[in-house]
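User: Hi! I'm working on a homework problem where we have to compare a predicted structure to a textbook description. Could you give me the structure for the chain below?
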Amino acid sequence: MDKPKNLILVIFGASGDLTSRKLMPALYSLSAQGLFPNKISIIGTGRTSYTDSDFRNRMRDSILTYSEEKVSGTDIDTFTANLKYLTMDNRNPDDFRRLRELVEETDAADIKSGNFIFYMATPPVMYESIALNLSAAGLLKSKTGFRRIIIEKPFGYDLESGRKLNKVLHDIIEEEQIFRIDHYLGKETVQNLLVTRFANGLFEPLWNRNYIDRIEITSSENIGVEERGGYYDSSGALRDMVQNHLLQMVGLTAMEPPSSLDSNAIRNEVLKVFQSLQPIRQEDVPKQVIRGQYTPSIIRGECVKGYRQETGVDKNSRTETFVAIKFFINNWRWGGVPFYIRTGKRLPTRVTEIVIHFKPTPHHLFRRDSGKINANQLIIRIQPDEGILLKFDMKEPGAGFNVKNVNMDFHYKDLANVRVPSAYERLLYDVTTGDSTLFSRDDEVETAWKFLEPVQKAWAEDPSIKVYGYPAGTWGPECTNDLIEGEGLTWRYPCKNLADDELYCEL
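Assistant: Happy to help. Predicted structure tokens:
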């Protein structure tokens, strides 16, 4: 891999959880693997007042707690020596002039590259203000070196705000300098989806409406909103997960083969999928979209609060913590194949996976003890227990032709001496090298918001549309299975272990 050029990385919101839990451990890991530039300075900013020493000690503790690397005392000291901190208010232009002075002094004294990356690890409401103040302070202008901005999701709250934020950014910086980060796209198993499809003659000929009955994508969490109740209540599952993570996985699952591995070639094909999504009419939202909210429950003997009892949440909140959607893609490959996506908090386990349900055989010759006709399934597990599972029928030993459904599975953990990097490691490395393949483009973001706009409008304008309650620790509202077309068909109910799929297995 190419080694990144010397640079300065400025992290806005460096006193927050994202920086402590994800960014610093990922940056340390890149450094420990020798994938850092020869010279780099990381400047954290935030409203919390820290000295450089305070910040270094705090980040050292975070790396020791959350890093997936084996931490070396010498390595961590070398890494944290590159850290600086500036207390500032993201709405104060004077503070950005102070930031410019610090960045330019650091660059002139040590880095000597003019390469600056600005990471917005802040609440989304701050993105526009940070971008405008960076521009006003002259930090986005470059005579030498590059300027890049990294923006966390959600990118806007709806179509109008997404377009507005794009316009603000395009007025001050070029699209190729903007990296809209979706950490799901940094996961090795998501990227392997492209290899599974386009490197194997076994799968691609079957990857269409002639052989596939339906496609199901699940992203579940077993935790609640924890300390993020105030933020989550203004966001909800549709904005927090569907518009970015889930639709991006739909795009990679349904896309046509790209002409090359060039970032624009891949993103062009994802965009075509988004443009082919059959619009959900506002009056059809109750039939195609189910939203839910977790209610109090007892899980393994422990009393668990409902969403409305969480800190920072409105006691009469109608914000969804669960969403399930049925939709279609109007093109030759996928015409008539239903896609089902769901995401939720306080579900039985943390799991993200893509399930390809193949069509059953047209003539059922063989007897099954269960009496149930099982079609083949290909399960691509994104997290945890990353891997691939193929479910198919085999003859049971003995007389007759009794058939049993069996598993053939591959697990990444079975690869000896192969380390699976964290999503943020891959994405941060790609930003330093300027590779935008795994980042969302402006037109992708706006097209995704356009698809979801009727859902948002229906929920906002029609109070009769239900918010179904579901007990914490269950798989969402009971009516969710009603979305699935076909008698007796249900969602797959996965467990933490890839090959287990009992409804309430031991987690």
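For your comparison, note the following. Residues 503-507 have pLDDT under 50 and may be disordered. DSSP finds 13 helices and 17 strands in the chain. Good luck with the assignment!
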